Amino acid sequence: MRAIVATRALPSSDPLAFEPRELPDPSPGDQDLLIRVEAVAVNPVDAKVRASLPHEPGTPRILGWDGAGVVEAVGGAVRDFSPGDAVFFAGDITRPGCYAEKVLVDGRLCGPKPAILSFAEAAALPLTSLTAWEALFERIGLDSEGADAGRSLLILGGAGGVGSIAIQLARRAGLEVIATASRPESRAWCLDLGASHVVDHHQPLAPQLAALGYGEVDAIANFSDTDAYWNVMAELIKPQGAIVCIVGNRSPLDLNVLKSKSVRLAWEFMFTRPQYRTADMAQQGVILGIISKLVDSGGLRSTCHDRLSPINADTLGQAHGRLESGQAIGKLVLVGWLA
Ligand SMILES: NC(=O)c1ccc[n+]([C@@H]2O[C@H](COP(=O)([O-])OP(=O)(O)OC[C@H]3O[C@@H](n4cnc5c(N)ncnc54)[C@H](OP(=O)(O)O)[C@@H]3O)[C@@H](O)[C@H]2O)c1
What we know:
With about 350 residues, the chain is of the alpha/beta class. It has helices spanning about 45-50, 120-125, 125-140, 160-170, 185-195, 205-210, 225-235, 270-275, 285-295, 315-325; strands at about 1-5, 20, 30-40, 65-75, 85-90, 100-105, 110, 150-155, 175-180, 195-200, 215-220, 235-245, 265, 305-310, 330-335. The protein has two domains: about 1-125 and about 280-335, Quinone Oxidoreductase, Chain A, domain 1 (Alpha-Beta Complex), CATH 3.90.180.10; about 130-265, Rossmann fold. The longest helix has 14 residues, at about 125-140. NADP nicotinamide-adenine-dinucleotide phosphate (NAP) binds near residues 43, 156, 159, 183 and 246.
């Protein structure tokens, strides 16, 4: 199979940041699907792993943990999928990724591709949907079916990949979503996805929220810099509110700022279940199944905003450059292999 590998930490603009390699097809373990990859979405984690590689050429790494494709073969213990099925998946960051014509993914982590979406539109969804779903409905326990309707949720980083699906999931659950965005196009994107209000994260947030009638909010989903927003979140969260963060902090943070309000703080890491093979890891397949149904019934839409084609070393370098700009709107997807 063709794979696009990274062997060392080079800038995304370096022509050697990614290299094509011919590798043997992987063969599925008991629980695996062997998937022919049709489209891949890029995520900041891909760029972070690339940047963490050694400076000298080392073992080739296949990055990429977000995609859609067709099942070619299944392991002996797989019951839910068969060859020919179209699937979408994020998978497991401890295994080779999907910047390759074929990838192995544990079937329990996969969902059926939404039938109404193209492979590119479907590839935009898995990693960010799992992150947003787990963050909102599992880690801080908001109700996905409306029992928390009317409660206020501040989403920091509304137009990014995670924010774009979180806004939709939260609105569907009846929450009042205040998203942050700093540019006219990212602001318009958030409003179009269902945010009730958009505030500018480059201006002080408290006065903007106060002007909208929110002194404090019931919950905060921080899809941006945890350190930068720590004290702001402590100020804006209601007593007994909940905060979920998805970006590791760089410096020690003072937990005491959350104590007097008895704030609940949760981490979300989408790869926890696959990496630790938790007893409930199949929940990720369940979540992707729900996402798929919601898309097919018109309750959610793809967050695919930009596409590049075909999937090769050049387009992956370009895609990582865009990721590193920090100005993504929705998802950037690469689609198709040149024959
Ligand atoms: N823990 C997990 O499981 C998990 C999962 C997915 C992602 N992540 C991490 O979460 C972060 C976000 O991921 P993503 O895929 O959503 O990223 P992304 O798509 O690259 O996010 C881009 C967005 O970030 C916004 N932004 C830039 N600076 C900001 C700031 N100071 N405050 C608030 N928003 C800002 C931009 O909005 P404007 O252009 O409007 O400024 C842009 O729309 C990354 O660090 C990623 O590694 C963690």
